[in-house]
Description:
It is a single chain. This protein has helices at 3-17, 35-48, 75-82, 86-92, 154-157, 162-167, 169-187, 189-192; strands at 24-29, 53-57, 102-109, 114-121, 127-131, 146-151, 195-198. By secondary structure, the chain is of the alpha/beta class. The chain has one domain (3-14, 24-198): Rossmann fold, CATH 3.40.50.300. Strand 3 (102-109) and strand 4 form a beta hairpin. The longest helix has 19 residues, at 169-187. It is globular and about 45 Å long. It starts with a helix and ends with a strand. This is Uridine kinase. It holds the Pfam family PRK. GO terms for molecular function: uridine kinase activity.
Amino acid sequence: MGLRDRIDFLCKTILAIKTAGRLVLGIDGLSRSGKTTFANQLSQTLREQGISVCVFHMDDHIVERAKRYHTGNEEWFEYYYLQWDVEWLTHQLFRQLKASHQLTLPFYDHETDTHSKRTVYLSDSDMIMIEGVFLQRKEWRPFFDFVVYLDCPREIRFARENDQVKQNIQKFINRYWKAEDYYLETEEPIKRADVVFDMTS
């Protein structure tokens, strides 16, 4: 099944389960599995079919570097537990998705390592789409109506950045890959997702 077929299948599924009020859809998957591209294409297709969609990218809401690097914790712990302010986002983003008409959130600037606050306006008819890694962590999973998991092996996900991986192999092993393994083992996202797409083809 190619990307276009996956998008079409998911659109039909979403339209079949969509009822009055907002539907909160999660696009989950590990780093470099294609979540952003998938979410952008899916949202465009849904809008073409008359569905109003608001998309949140979790990487827009990470904390500044001093809170996620050199904290005295293991690197994988920093990436999994400290990359985002999980508790704050639970209350100020996820708990507000169904009822609020506007959300004021901090958006992170990677170049300046600072945040700026922006207000996102939501209508009653919006579908809320959230894409990001570790979405099915226990703190956030209950807020989704439907979750898609993009499954792709590590060797494929990082193949395009092979030189960068080789130069920083210990960082990838100790920070990113240990956190991914922890997520897979503790939260079982593939088993819990409503739909799993094999992204190797």
